[in-house]
Structures are given as structure tokens and as C-alpha cells.
Amino acid sequence: SASRASSTVASSTPPTATVAGGAGSATLVAASPQPASYALVVGIERYRDLPSPTGARRDAEGFAQMLRRTLGLKDDHVRVALDDRATRTDIDKHLEWLKTEVPAGSRVYFYFSGHGAPDVASGSPYLLPFDGDPKTVERTGLGLAAVMKGLGETRAKEALAIVDACFSGAGGRSVLPAGARPLVRVKDAAPPARVALFSATGASEISGPAPGVAEGLFTRTLLEGLGGGKADADGDGQISLAELAGWVKPRVTREALKDQRAQTPTLTMGAGESADRFIVGYGYATK
Q1: Under a CB-based contact definition with an 8 Å cutoff, are residues 242 and 4 in contact?
Q2: Which of 33, 88, 173, 204 could form a Cys-Cys staple with 165, CB 3.0–4.6 A?
Q3: Which residues of 67-86 are buried (b: 16+ CB within 10 A; e: fewer)?
Q4: Contacts of 45 (CB under 8 A, 6+ apart)
Q5: 41-84 pLDDT tens trace
Q6: Would you say 182 and 170 are in contact if contact means Cβ atoms under 8 Å apart?
Q7: How confident is the model at residue 184 (pLDDT cuts 50, 70, 90)?
Q8: What is the reported pTM?
Q9: In sequence order, what are the beta bridge partners of 240?
Q10: Is the pLDDT of residue 12 over 50?
Q11: Is 221 left (phi over 0), alpha (psi -120 to 50) or beta?
């Protein structure tokens, strides 16, 4: 089950310091390092045969920066796959790296920004790699359920998958085969035990950019909450997954409505997992 960082860890760490620079428009602070955490970060803005999802590469770079600066992951524990270095084969190799290299009791982060697509027949959601094709998504895409199953097969104690894509085919960060109607009923992907999924949208919604900037609204807000420490609702120096979702969801929903778009970030926990007990970051400056 997901673990709660002990309060002694949070209280014994030095106060947070603002780190020079930031991830996109978010200012990053330094929390306690997580030397036993590993991450795979994928961002695809320039596809081989598909239109560009604006800001996807910058989102991934910002998330990787936050992992290193705020959460203190070691450089060699973070793999970043961008654009043409994020083919299906590339991503499969990186997922295999997590299975073979992550030691027991550690944590895994998986982040994806780019296009999603539904299987038109089944409604199953897929992530599209650089060389993905919505016409043959079963062969060229990465099933979201399969990715989460793979995370659950690592030796990690817990895994968090964060996906800034959508699967409706109605626009934004999603695509459909030519001629298909955007009326596909997309299935919700249920994570296995020890895995949590935080998605940019509900199943039938559209993920879009933040107002006035080339960044995904969901990722930018998440980086402000987690990387900037703003989601620490009770000021105890820790940010649980419940706190993070509670901070991100209303802000994304509100900003998306200004753009005449419904976008509701969705947190789904694996069986038996608790969003309150999953402490994403700790050692923030207490309020």
C-alpha cells in the first residue's frame, strides 16, 4: 500500500528554498530529496505523421525539472524521452528499464504529454508515441491499461502515472483515424494495486493549453501545486495525492471554462490504495 512519509521527516528537514528558474511559468521550490524514486518522462510535440499538441515537449521538460529540483530525484534515476526519441520501441525499452532497475520498496513516476487516441471499436485509451498511428492504434500505440500494468509489475512500493493527454478524439491532445466520428465512448482505465493515475481530463473531455502560453493547463497547474508547494493545504510540509488533486482540479476546471472547454482532471487509485496516504512530496517549508 502507499506509504505516508513520517512527520519527523517533514519537520526535521531545512526550510524550503526557492530554486532559481522554474518549470515553464511555475516557480519551483526545493523539498526533501527522494533518492529511492525513479521516473520515466515522455513528451511528444513533434510527431512523425500527426499534428502538434502545443506545449507537450515543454510540459515534459518542466515536469522532469520539477522531479530533479523539487523532489530531488537523482539524474540517473530520471529518463526523459522527447519527440523522435519517444518511438514506441524507445518507450517500451524505458518501461523495461523500470522493471529491471527499480529496487524493491522504491517509488516510480511515469509522466506522458502528447496525443492520446481511443480504439474506435473498443473505446480503450491509448497513448501515441512519436510513430503512433490512430488507424492502427492497437499495434502502434501504447495501451494506457498496459502501461499501468507494467508499472505495477516493477518492484516499486508505489507508482504514480500522470497523463496530460486526452482520448475523446474531439480535439486538443487527441486524434482519431481519418473519417471516424468523435463519438467514441472512451473507457476509464483502472490502475492495478500500487498504482495511481492522475489524468488531465475525464474520459470524454479535451485537454488544452493554459491561457496565453504554450503549456498544457493541467501540467502547468500541477507544477504550481507540487513544484511550487502551493498544494500543501494544511501547511504540514507534505503534499498528499489527495491534496494535490484537490488543488489542481478546481483550478484547471475553472480556467478551461474560460476557454469554453470542459476539462476535469481525474485521479484514480488502484484497489486498496489511499490518496490521503500517498505522500507525493514532503519537506516543504511549513506554514
Answers
A1: no
A2: 173
A3: bbbbbbbeeebbbbbbbeeb
A4: 52, 53, 54, 55, 56, 57, 58, 83, 114
A5: 999 999 999 999 999 999 999 999 999 999 999 999 999 999 99
A6: yes
A7: low
A8: 0.91
A9: 279
A10: no
A11: alpha
Which residue shows C-alpha cell 504550481? 224
Residue 188 corresponds to which amino acid? Answer: D
Residue 77 amino acid letter: H
Beta-carbon contacts of residue 205 (< 8 Å; ≥ 6 apart): 166, 168, 261, 262, 263, 264
| Size (the chain), residues | 287
Measured CA to CA, the distance from residue 25 to residue 21 in angstroms comes to 9
